[in-house]
């Protein structure tokens, strides 16, 4: 270990809900000097062997909506930094289920040595205001079309000031085998082609979180989106062409559809981060996920 690396305060880091984004983050953490151990949770018994193969300390932690009463919960939350990646399962659970899950998470954090929390939220909380939107445009559930998500943010924020809490509102998370054109190939007469996108590549999403862990988590809310916002039509046509899929067709609506352009200015003001994929028209895609 170099002298510089030896000066870095190593952190125990837990990822609650270690899925598509979490695995990409975990791989970076495992090779970074900031990390002493990476703990990863899943609700699936079958993923534990994969976690072990990757060098992660795996935990099966179902939230139904609370945690089971066992030693695994205490061991998982015996950590310095906690990343929470638990999106609500719309249509799969009754109203209020997600809120109860987050309440259980907050209770576990309060009774743990966790110092800092990063909560993965979503830019879906913003209404279409037909302008550039910032973090201050939504702070309360009544401001949002996704009220339960904002309520979850507020519950996590209630951990302040005892814990340092960052809320990260992620745009559409894409890259590798998550290819926009795949989901619209062959569709006819789409009316949303001119709407600007608010996307983030998975590599940037994971790298932003790592940057925050290394430079210091802040008691702030940040939008995590690429700087550029091309129209959906351009991205759909480009990605269909890349993979030989039938392109969708588009209507020219009489009135411009409602939209939002989500600003990442606050993120770039607080952290010296240079995007790997600033332009969603240049995202890296492939049919198979390399990890």
From TrEMBL:
Pfam families given in the database record: Epimerase (PF01370)
Entries under InterPro entries matching the protein: Epimerase_deHydtase, NAD(P)-bd_dom_sf
Domain NAD-dependent epimerase/dehydratase: 104-224
Signal peptide start-end: none
Source species, domain of life: Bacteria
Protein's recorded name: Protein YeeZ
């Amino acid at each position: 270990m170099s002298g510089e690396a030896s000066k870095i305060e190593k952190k125990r880091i837990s990822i609650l809900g270690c899925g598509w984004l979490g695995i990409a983050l975990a791989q970076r953490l495992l090779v970074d000097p900031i990390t002493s151990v990476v703990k990863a949770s899943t609700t699936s018994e079958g993923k534990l062997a994969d976690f072990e193969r990757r060098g992660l300390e795996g935990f099966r932690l179902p939230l139904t909506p609370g945690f089971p009463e066992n030693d695994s919960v205490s061991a998982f939350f015996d950590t310095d930094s906690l990343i929470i990646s638990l999106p609500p399962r719309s249509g799969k659970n009754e109203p209020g289920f997600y809120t109860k899950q987050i309440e259980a998470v907050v209770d576990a954090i309060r009774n743990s040595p966790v110092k800092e929390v990063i909560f993965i939220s979503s830019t879906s909380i913003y209404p279409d205001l037909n302008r550039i939107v910032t973090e201050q445009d939504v702070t309360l559930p009544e401001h949002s079309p996704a009220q339960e998500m904002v309520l979850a943010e507020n519950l996590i924020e209630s951990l302040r000031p005892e814990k340092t809490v960052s809320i990260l509102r992620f745009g559409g998370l894409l890259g590798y085998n998550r290819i926009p054109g795949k989901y619209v190939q062959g569709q006819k007469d789409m009316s949303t082609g001119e709407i600007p996108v608010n996307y983030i590549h998975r590599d940037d999403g994971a790298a932003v979180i790592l940057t925050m862990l290394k430079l210091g988590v802040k008691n702030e809310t940040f939008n995590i989106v690429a700087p550029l916002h091309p129209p959906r039509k351009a991205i759909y046509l480009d990605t269909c062409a890349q993979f030989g899929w039938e392109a969708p067709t588009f209507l020219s609506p009489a009135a411009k559809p409602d939209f939002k352009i989500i600003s990442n200015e606050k993120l770039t003001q607080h952290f010296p981060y240079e995007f790997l994929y600033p332009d969603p028209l240049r995202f890296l895609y492939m049919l198979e996920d390399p990890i």
